[in-house]
Amino acid sequence: METLINCIRRCGQYIIKFIVLTTLRLTVRGMENIPDTPKLLIVANHASYLDVLTIGFPFFKQGLRTRWVISKSNYRLWYLKWLYFLWRVVVLNGTIEKIKHALDEGLWVVIFPEGNERWCPPGQSKRKHPARGAAVIALSTGVPVIPVGIVGTDKVLPARSFRLNARHHIIVNIGKPFSYNIVDEAKIENELLESTTADIMAKIKALIDEVS
Quick one: average pLDDT of 106-129? Predict the structure, then answer.
């Protein structure tokens, strides 16, 4: 049964890939930076629902081994259930144990440190800074991290909108992998978390600036 479900998922991913590539102007840079490793933490900026689809293409070969981290509130959105079926997700429950478990199983995990707060309507954002979960994972596991800068999705599909503006160009810029020395999670101090989160976001921003 699981084989059949995975076959359906893979066929659906190919169909979505064809639709997106024939509809959108998409350029991917830095494919050579994707490492050949059994587990990987992928961190990227987040400005549109399209980010999930566009970031999926550089890692398409690992489609069945990749998990997207999402919040409970986003998981409840009925109109995205088809997407969560095709691209399997890890639903946050207040801890990072599910993410660490996925990595321990040799999976690739995609996380957006900004969550969906960056593109909430003005005055409704609850988070002033990127979440620190990616930093905790990177520090406590030593897993290879690859930064990705996504440019243009917010113009093609603006926040809280379902109207495509396909004339704009989308660029997915993949950076070189890096990792941090392993630190016991119980000994990770706030100052280290803040500096590591800032370092991760700076790497993403550099990739965005490079193609903007």
Answer: 66
Count up the domains in the chain and report the number. 1
Token pair of 85 as six digits: 């079926």
Edge-to-edge strand ranges of the sheet holding 89-91? 25-29, 169-174, 145-151, 40-44, 108-111, 66-70, 89-91
Summarised one tens digit per residue, pLDDT across range 13-67 is 888 888 878 888 899 999 999 998 889 999 999 888 888 888 887 887 776 688 8
Beta bridge partners of 178: 145
Q: And the tokens for 59?
A: 């890692």
Full residue range of the structural domain in which residue 19 is found? 2-211
Which residues have a Cβ under 8 Å from the Cβ of 91 and sit 6 or more positions away?
70, 71, 72, 75, 98
Give me the CATH number covering residue 35: 3.40.1130.10
Please state the pTM of the whole predicted model. Answer: 0.88
Torsion angle defined by CA atoms of residues 43, 45, 46 and 48, in that order, rounded to the nearest 10 degrees: -120
Answer whether 10's CB lies under 8 Å from 64's CB: yes
